[in-house]
Recover the amino acids of this structure.
């Protein structure tokens, strides 16, 4: 799941958390998605201010674009892996976020990527720097399963 931010962590000041959860009840819509995401037991969400946070459902293509952008831009002090490698890293993160195994075929990852309901988050917590290198992305896979990639880097 964190392939796109590996350089942030290895060559800069980055940190990331990833998670997969099974919910007791299915999520219904954007407000539900935000409330579910901020209630996950993750360090990056400690002290989150729900009233100052935002979550929006986005298209699968936007979700992949966010992953690619995170990879291709590098972190605050890391260099970009550039096009082809950044696409590979985005693909690996997308496969992880959709709970595809390492050996999953291209078609399976594409199908799960397109079926998931993606949520882009802007979270007001002390963990996030609120600058260029913040990424908070969740995938709701079947209403009850949710995965997330939360990453930040700052200079």
């Amino acid at each position: 799941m964190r392939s796109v931010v590996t350089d942030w962590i290895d060559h800069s000041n980055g940190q990331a958390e990833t998670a997969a959860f099974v919910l007791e009840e299915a999520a219904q819509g954007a407000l539900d998605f935000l409330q579910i995401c901020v209630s996950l037991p993750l360090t990056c969400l400690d002290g989150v201010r729900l009233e100052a946070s935002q979550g929006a459902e986005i298209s699968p293509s936007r979700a992949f674009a966010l992953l690619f952008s995170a990879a291709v831009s590098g972190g605050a002090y890391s260099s970009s892996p550039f096009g082809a490698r950044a696409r590979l890293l985005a693909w690996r993160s997308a496969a992880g976020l959709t709970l595809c195994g390492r050996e999953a075929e291209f078609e399976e990852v594409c199908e799960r990527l397109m079926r998931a309901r993606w949520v882009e988050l802007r979270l007001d917590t002390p963990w996030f720097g609120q600058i260029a290198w913040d990424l908070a992305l969740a995938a709701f896979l079947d209403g009850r399963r949710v995965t997330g990639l939360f990453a930040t880097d700052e200079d």
